[in-house]
Structures are given as structure tokens and as C-alpha cells.
From TrEMBL:
The chain crosses the membrane at residues 269-295, 318-344, 364-386, 407-430, 442-475, 496-516, 732-757, 784-804, 824-845. It comes from Streptomyces asoensis. It is a multi-pass membrane protein. This is FtsX-like permease family protein. Belongs to the ABC-4 integral membrane protein family.
């Protein structure tokens, strides 16, 4: 009980100094809990949606996926004859059955040809209005479509694009473009995560989406009273045979949940990883806080020991303070986490993914995980300072000698740090020298972990040398004040090392990712310059295939010398060694593709692969299956017949663009795949006539005005798009890493604040002999700057080493250009100095306000 009273007294006595440590715990716990609440809420939203939109049993056409996705490589949804509906209705246990037709491969535009598709990545769904949708949608304005000239739109899409009754929209599919006017607006009765939904009448949907009548993509079946979904599925399957996919409501919902869940899991674990980094950084802050508090209470600890307190009691007293800190910080963090989750939901709403706070889900495990993590991390971080406090002998403490310096422990620490750093460096060397990316990745991971731990352990040893160098460059210009700031930073190398290490971790990751991102852009840019021999690339940013009408619009554009179509499909390969490879990708293109993309060959000529009944393979595939020029491969095309193709070229596997692709001609594909099953173009290449590039670029954009889902890019555009995509990804990662950097800044603030208290008497004496308040504040700011620059120098150097090693692994995939983004690195380094200045504002202000006489009288 006495231990707890002492801990409580000390906690409240230093509540201001504990606040920043509590904030670090709060931020880390809040990020973990916010991530869990956000992903749980998304899961709840999708679960409700899938459960409400799934009929008791669903019959799908052959080729449809388990999730109900209807996009196929020919741009039309897989369908079944209308006769299936009649057969289903005859099955025992069927109360009702209704045929539906819908597609997720359509693009919808308004009267100005602007796309109405979501920008969040959610699908655009066009289908017929049916009874199943009527259960989940309520018509709030107008009426359901009743003719080919009518369409109904969901309320969220109508609000977003300011659509109203009577507005004309166009539905663009592989069949053509169908125009209609809005006859009604329907609102979701459950939360819509962002999909745009358009309803046509059944006959119009069949003709607009499929191009033929009397077909359905699905049949929705409702069970009669007392009939289970499982029994109904069995009865329906027995009636219609094995040519169709039959699923219960649970199976359909589970398939949809698994599809969405894989994306949510990636997002959740990525965010939790960044929260873990923030926790790691917070450990340094807590260790520093308790180390300094223990040092400042040396005499108090001596008195406690002198009147009978044991080492264990002193130890428990410090750990009890840490426990209280962890409990308070974690409790606040759990509450803040719910706020973060709501903020993320609002942010997603701005991007088009609507999430209702009515579905906010806080599982009982979330606060438990947050509390346990926050408390355990805090107590573990405080263990070393508590252990050192228990070692203070009563007499040494009463003499204010502080914790005994352990030279042997320092030497051991230095040796361990050097060994770990060396082992990490050797791991990075093995990664850079690896012949296979998988093997190199293991060495890279090991090297990163060991080198990071090594730098953390060896930090105090490095602090002495690095701070002196930084002091000579940065601080000496400030005269005696700068020299005092340098000495203050060197006074306790362990403290400086731990404070700098907290900042080092975040900046190391920033530097590593910057090097990797810049190297990827530079490598891809070089490969584009070297390999691409066409002027324009036309494709969809949303993944839609090129409709025949859009391809024809490209071909009709004036000023073009040639247009190359590019298709992708799958086939089952039977190679000369007797092996059968199912669902192997094969690319079909026009013969001019050999000119548009200069692919390196190791044998033969790529142009010969576009001869009739010919193909190419890449060298790794050829080696694995004993294939040489002239070898015959049996190729069973998807939705087509089997061909015997002759290998006319073997390409290099080191290419960046189309790496590992195997080519044949579109003419060969057409020979073995029926016209109605032929895949649409993934993209189209266009080359202008000499001297007409600018005019052709303008003409292409005009020709595709009616097809906003496709983008025309020249090589400059393509390079910029690649740079922007990688830049957006890096900015997202930097934003998540900002949490760790904020915690590191709090560590600098806390270290300075506590060191000011620790040096109260010294500051009073300096003021008494003539040091002005302005000089005192400058000294503290300079100390903060040099500590921040120390952490930045270590972090940036370490991160560039990691990034350069990672680039060597990317070189195995053809990305062989190493580029150091010096503007970013220099900017971060300079920014670290401003971080140091910012962190010192409050401690410097408080130091300047000290009363000189009171400071001198301080024990």
C-alpha cells in the first residue's frame, strides 16, 4: 500500500512531465483501436448489404464468379437461356423465381459525356429492376423504368452528380451505347458503400448489356415456407442439371465477404503495422522519461532505501507509476480511437465510399486489445529505468551521486551494438548479391531488422562522434551558446542516443521508400524510352476493356500511321515435356506490336511469332519445359478450340514491360475462338504519321470524347502518370509514418523539458553570471536541433542503405536504375532542424521564465 501511495504521489508531482508520455501512448492506442473499429464497421456494412441483397438461392450462368461479378473478357456478362427460369420454377420448394440480368462492365455517362462511375473503386452496376432489388431499394421519386427510353438511378449517385428526373444518360457496353431518360430515383434501405446502380426494364437490359433477348445472368429463387436454403439448392440443382452455378444466400454472402475481406485485411494489417512503429518509437520516449525522472529523484530514492525500502519496493514504485501512465493513456486512446474511426469514415465518404455511423461497430475485443497493448508496452518500457532505480545504493543516493555509472555495461552495449550492426550490414550485402528475389527478400528483412536494432543499441556511442561533427558545422557559428548546447547534448550520450533513435526509425523508413519509389520511376522511365516505339497508349484507368466502338473510333482518327490492338486471354498449355499448365496467360496482338514494343529476344525474331499458328515464349518458360525454336505447344484457348502453335521466338524474362508475356497474333486467336467469345482489347497503341504527333494527339482525344472511361496518353503523359501513382502511394505511407514522427517529436520535447528541470540550478547560475534569457532559449533550441539532426542523419543514412539494397532486388525484375532522391533527402534533413526548433519552443520558454534566485536555491 505504501508503494502505491508513493507511486501516486510521484505521478501527480510530475503530471506535467508524464503528459507527453501519456500522449504517445494515447496516439498509438488510438491508431490501433481506430483501425480495428474502422475495419469492423466496414465489415458490418458489407455484411448487411450482402445479406439483404442475396436471395434464398441464386442460379448463375456458367462462367459467373461466386461473388456475382459478371464481367467477362468479351465485355458481356455470362448468360443462360430464359428456359432455365421455367425449369427452376418447377423445382420442389420454390415459392417464386425471377430472372435478372446485370453487368458490372458498363460505363454510364451524362448528357455531357462525363462519367457517372464512382471514383472510389466501387463498381458501376447496370441491371433490370426486379423484386430482389425492391426489397433493398425504395423509389423516392418518379417510377421504375417501363420502356427502353427509361432508366432509374440510385439516390446517392443522383445527389453526387446532381441528376434529376428527365435527365438523359448513356449506358456504354460492348454492345453499343444505349441512351435513356431518368424515370425514377431509388434510395438504399441499407448503407451503400459507394456503388453506382442503374436500372433498366428487363427487355432493355438484355438488349443493352448482352445484345440478345430471352437470356438471364441470374435467377433469384425464394424458398417456400418450411424449406431450408440448403434443401432448396439441392432441389433446384437436381431440376436444372450441373451446367449452372447454384448458391444459397449464405454461400453468396460469404463469397462476397471473402472478396471484400481480403482487401480489408490488407488495409487493416498495413495500418496496424504503422501503429506498431509508433509504439516502438513511444518506447524510447517512455524509457527516457522514466530514466530522467529516476535520475532527478536520486536523493529521494536514497532516503527511501535508508529508512528500509528494499530494491524490489523501489522497483515496484517506478513500475506502478508506469502502470498508471499506461492505464490513463490507454483509456484515453481507446476513446480517441473511436473518433479516428469516425474521421476515417467521413474521409472515405469524401472519396465516394459511403459509410454510415449507424453501423459503427466497437467489438469488445477492441478496447481490450488497446488497453493490453498500451499497458504492456508502457510497463515494459519502464522496466529498465525501474531496475536501475533499484540498484542505487542508499549512501551514493544521499550524496546525490545518481545511478552508478557502469563502464562494463557500456562496453558490452557497444560490442553488442557493433555486432548487430555488422550482422545487419552483412545481411544487406547478401540481399544485394542474391540471384533470386525470394531469397534476397529474406536477407533484406533480416538485414533491416538487425541493422535497426544495432543502430539503436550503438546510438550512445555514435552520439559522441556525430554530435561533435554536427556541432562543428551547425553550432559553432553561435559562439559560446552553441558550444554550451553541444556540451549539453553530449552530457548524457545514452539519453541523446535514445531520443535520436526515436526520430531515426520514422525517417529511415521515409528514406528507404523514397529511394525505392524514385528508382522504380527512373527504371520504368528508362525502359519506356528504350522499349516503347509507339506514340500513344489508349486504355481505361478503371480496368474496363476497350469496346469495339471505341477501338473503331481510334482507327478512324486522321493522322495515324498504324493502330495496334492488344488482347489478353487464358489457355491450357501442353508443353513438349508432357506437362499441362492450366489457365496460362497468353497475349494476342497485331503484328505491328513487334514494332510498338521492342522486346529483347534470346532466340528467333519476335515478328515471326505473329505468323499463322505461331507464338513466342519467354526464356525461363523455355528452360523449364525444354522448349526450343520450332517446338510445338498445344494451346487450348479459353472459350475456344485447341491449336498446335509453333514457337518462333524466345524472349528475355528481364523485360519490365510485359515481363513474362507469351505472344501470338490476333489472327491466330480469331481462328480458334468464336467471334462472340473473342476477348476485347485491353488497350490500343497508336502511332502518328511523321510530323503529325500533336495533331493526332488532339484528334484522338476528340475521337474518344464519347468514351470518358478511356484515356489517351503519349509517352510523356504515361511517365507522369507512373510518377504520380507511385507518388500518391508514397504520400499515403508518409502520412501513416507521420504518427511515428509525431511521437518522436514528443520524445524530443519531453527530453528537453525534463533536462531543463534537471539543470535548474545550473541554469540559475548561468543566468546569474550574465547569460540572458534570449541566449538561454537559443542554447536549448540549438541543443534540440542537434539532437534532431543526429536522429535524421542516422535515419536517412540507414534508410538509403535499405533502399539501395531493395533496388538491387528490383533489378532482378528489370528495374535496374538506382536513383537517390536528393531533393527529398536534403529536404527531410533540413526539415528535421525545424522539427528540433519546434520541439524546443515550450521547454525554452519555460527555462527563460525561471526565477534566477529560486533556481540557484534548488537542490
Amino acid at each position: 500500500m505504501t508503494v502505491m501511495k508513493t507511486s501516486m504521489r510521484n505521478f501527480y508531482a510530475h503530471k506535467g512531465r508524464m503528459a507527453l508520455s501519456a500522449v504517445a501512448v494515447l496516439l498509438s492506442v488510438a491508431f490501433v483501436c481506430g483501425t480495428l473499429v474502422f475495419t469492423d464497421t466496414m465489415n458490418t456494412t458489407f455484411d448487411k448489404l450482402f445479406a439483404s441483397t442475396s436471395s434464398d438461392v441464386t442460379v448463375s450462368a456458367k462462367g459467373a464468379s461466386d461473388t456475382g461479378e459478371t464481367t467477362s473478357d468479351n465485355g458481356k456478362p455470362p448468360v443462360m437461356p430464359a428456359s432455365v427460369l421455367g425449369a427452376v420454377r418447377k423445382a420442389d420448394g420454390v415459392k417464386s423465381a425471377e430472372g435478372t440480368v446485370f453487368s458490372t462492365s458498363a460505363t454510364v455517362v451524362d448528357a455531357d459525356k462525363d462519367s457517372l462511375s464512382p471514383t472510389s473503386g466501387a463498381p458501376t452496376i447496370v441491371g433490370n429492376w426486379n423484386g430482389n432489388d425492391a426489397r433493398t431499394m425504395e423509389i423516392t421519386d418518379g417510377a421504375a423504368p417501363k420502356g427502353s427510353d427509361q432508366v432509374m438511378v440510385d439516390a446517392d449517385t443522383a445527389d453526387k452528380h446532381d441528376l434529376k428526373l428527365g435527365d438523359e444518360i448513356g449506358v456504354i457496353t460492348a454492345v453499343g451505347t444505349h441512351t435513356a431518360k431518368i424515370s425514377g430515383i431509388a434510395a438504399f434501405q441499407v448503407t451503400n458503400p459507394g456503388a453506382a446502380i442503374f436500372y433498366l426494364d428487363t427487355k432493355t437490359a438484355q438488349e443493352a448489356l448482352v445484345g440478345e433477348s430471352n437470356v438471364y445472368t441470374n435467377v433469384n429463387v425464394t424458398a417456400a415456407a418450411g424449406v431450408s436454403d440448403a434443401q432448396l439448392k439441392k432441389n433446384v440443382a437436381a431440376e436444372i442439371g450441373a451446367d449452372y452455378k447454384v448458391q444459397t444466400a449464405k454461400e453468396t454472402a460469404d463469397a462476397n465477404r471473402d472478396s471484400v475481406g481480403s482487401f480489408l485485411d490488407v488495409m487493416k494489417y498495413a495500418m496496424l503495422g504503422f501503429a506498431g512503429i509508433a509504439f516502438l518509437v513511444g518506447i524510447f520516449l517512455i524509457i527516457n522519461t522514466f530514466s530522467m525522472l529516476v535520475a532527478q529523484r536520486t536523493r529521494e530514492i536514497g532516503l527511501m532505501r535508508a529508512i528500509g525500502s528494499s530494491r524490489k519496493q523501489v522497483n515496484r514504485s517506478v513500475l506502478a507509476e508506469a502502470l498508471l501512465l499506461g492505464v490513463v493513456g490507454s483509456l484515453l486512446g481507446v476513446g480517441a480511437g473511436v473518433g479516428i474511426a469516425v474521421g476515417l469514415m467521413k474521409l472515405m465518404g469524401m472519396t465516394g465510399m459511403n459509410l454510415s455511423t449507424d453501423d459503427l461497430t466497437v467489438a469488445w475485443t477492441t478496447p481490450v486489445v488497446g488497453m493490453v497493448l498500451g499497458i504492456v508496452v508502457t510497463v515494459l518500457a519502464a522496466y529498465l529505468p525501474a531496475r536501475r532505480a533499484g540498484k542505487v545504493s542508499p549512501m551514493a543516493a544521499l550524496r546525490d551521486a545518481g545511478a552508478p555509472a557502469d563502464a562494463k555495461a557500456g562496453a558490452v552495449r557497444a560490442v553488442i551494438g557493433l555486432l548487430l550492426t555488422g550482422a545487419g550490414g552483412f545481411g544487406l550485402y547478401l540481399a544485394s548479391a542474391a540471384d533470386k528475389a525470394a531469397e534476397g527478400s529474406l536477407w533484406l528483412g533480416l538485414g533491416v531488422v538487425l541493422s535497426l536494432i544495432g543502430f539503436v543499441v550503438i546510438g550512445p556511442l555514435l552520439a559522441g562522434a556525430v554530435v561533435r561533427v554536427l556541432g562543428a558545422i551547425v553550432l559553432r557559428a553561435f559562439g559560446p551558446v552553441g558550444r554550451m548546447a553541444e556540451r549539453n547534448a553530449l552530457r548524457n550520450p545514452r539519453r541523446t542516443g535514445a531520443t535520436g533513435a526515436a526520430l531515426m526509425i520514422g525517417l529511415a523508413l521515409v528514406a528507404c521508400l523514397s529511394v525505392v519509389g524514385s528508382s522504380m520511376v527512373a527504371s520504368a522511365t528508362e525502359e519506356l524510352d528504350k522499349s516503347v516505339g509507339t506514340d500513344f497508349i489508349i486504355q481505361s484507368d478503371g480496368g474496363q476493356l476497350m469496346t469495339p466502338q471505341a477501338v473503331q473510333a481510334v482507327k478512324s482518327t486522321p493522322g495515324l500511321e498504324r493502330v495496334t490492338e492488344y488482347k489478353w486471354t487464358q489457355a491450357d498449355f501442353t508443353t513438349p515435356d508432357g506437362k499441362t499448365l492450366d489457365k496460362t496467360a497468353i497475349t494476342a496482338a497485331d503484328p505491328t506490336y513487334a514494332t510498338d514494343l521492342r522486346v529483347e529476344t534470346v532466340a528467333g525474331n519476335l515478328a515471326d511469332a505473329y505468323r499463322p499458328d505461331s507464338m513466342s515464349v519467354h526464356d525461363k518458360f523455355a528452360k523449364d519445359h525444354r522448349i526450343t525454336l520450332g517446338s510445338k505447344i498445344s494451346v487450348a484457348f479459353k472459350n475456344g478450340s485447341t491449336a498446335r502453335l509453333t514457337v518462333r521466338a524466345i524472349t528475355s524474362s528481364d523485360a519490365v514491360i510485359d515481363q513474362g508475356a507469351m505472344y501470338t497474333s490476333i489472327a491466330t486467336l480469331k481462328k480458334y475462338v468464336p467471334a462472340d467469345k473473342l476477348p476485347l482489347d485491353d488497350l490500343v497503341f497508336a502511332t502518328a504519321k511523321d510530323g503529325q504527333q500533336d495533331a493526332a494527339y488532339t484528334s484522338l482525344k476528340a475521337a474518344l470524347h464519347d468514351y470518358p472511361q478511356y484515356t489517351v496518353r503519349d509517352q510523356t503523359d504515361y511517365k507522369q502518370e507512373l510518377k504520380d501513382q507511385i507518388g500518391q502511394l508514397l504520400n499515403l505511407i508518409y502520412g501513416l509514418l507521420a504518427l511515428a514522427i509525431i511521437v518522436a517529436v514528443l520524445g524530443v520535447v519531453n527530453t528537453l523539458a525534463l533536462s531543463v528541470v534537471e539543470r535548474t540550478r545550473e541554469i540559475g547560475l548561468m543566468r546569474a553570471i550574465g547569460l540572458s534569457r534570449r541566449q538561454l532559449r537559443r542554447m536549448i533550441r540549438m541543443e534540440s536541433v542537434v539532437i534532431a539532426l543526429f536522429g535524421a542523419l542516422l535515419g536517412l543514412g540507414l534508410g538509403m542503405g535499405w533502399g539501395a539494397t531493395a533496388q538491387q532486388l528490383l533489378a532482378l525484375q528489370g528495374l535496374d536504375v538506382l536513383e537517390i532522391p536528393w531533393p527529398t533527402i536534403i529536404g527531410v534533413f533540413i526539415g528535421s532542424a525545424f522539427v528540433g526548433l519546434f520541439a524546443a519552443l515550450i521547454p525554452a520558454f519555460r527555462a527563460g521564465r525561471m526565477n534566477v534566485l529560486n533556481a540557484i536555491a534548488t537542490d
